[in-house]
Amino acid sequence: MMPPGHPAFRPRRPASDGRRPRAFTLIELLLVIGIIGVLAVTSVPALRSLTQVNTQASGERQVLDDLGLARQMAINNRRTVYVVFTPPTVAQHLPLLATSANPDRQREELLLRSLFTRQYASYALFTRRSVGDQPGQGRPRYLTDWKDLPEGMLFLTNRLVELTKGQWESVSGTLSVTNRPLPYGNFPFPTALSPMLRAPYIAFDPQGRVYYDDDWEPKIEGEAVSLSRGSAFYLRDANGVPDLGAAPDFSISPPTNRVDILVNWLTGRAEVQTYKMP
Known about the structure:
This protein is α+β, with helices and mostly antiparallel strands and 278 residues long. It has one domain (40-274). 27% of the residues lie in helices and 21% in strands. The protein contains four helices and twelve strands; from the N terminus they run H-E-H-H-E-E-E-E-H-E-E-E-E-E-E-E. It has helices at residues 26-77, 90-93, 105-116, 165-171, and strands at residues 81-85, 122-127, 141-142, 147-148, 153-155, 184-188, 196-204, 210-211, 223-233, 249-252, 259-263, 270-274. The strands form two sheets. Strands 1, 2, 3, 4, 6, 7 and 8 form a seven-stranded antiparallel β-sheet that branches. Strands 5, 9, 10, 11 and 12 form a five-stranded antiparallel β-sheet that branches. It is elongated and about 100 Å long.
């Protein structure tokens, strides 16, 4: 046997069946790339749809849970508990904070500015009285921080339109609970020490029933919270600060998507009703 360094040395080739090994051709590579592209194009919409469904389900569950929490707090502590929604008039409230009795006024203003870009997507639980308060000397307080809906979810904008008591009671006989605006009341905003602001709400009395301030009386009883998949876009300056004088632009996709969460006026229990086009 010749040593490896010998001029006549030839390495032994492995046994084969006589066929030469071959690589992929350009056509085969292009075909594989094309198949991968087709799979990607067809799977992305499905993944996007799944994400939207998960976001909607998350929003539904969050609102259902917090409505149930407000009702349970009202029953357990024998007091009226409100789910207060951030109104679309937040910017108009900013000058009143100059008269606020809250010593932490700077934090109060920062919170209000933050809530401006969370209009149609934030809410908090509130009560006017706490356990142990003397008659006529209630101590209002927020029972939770201000909460946001999941990213990509909004409260239906026409549900947060403010009406007077007379206007609201009038439309409450012609519009269903899923189409009429929510009732409005006076609440310290955005903290318990802030000046009063009118805001939409759903409230529960100590028996767990739906409750209204100032003797508002709907002709069709019950309330509802309506959600949509969409986003709100706010005009900002070069530093990213939102323009408090500009109304947001909305993108709802598809425009008809919505989910209604109905609250039974007698039991206070909430349930989801998916909206269907007539």
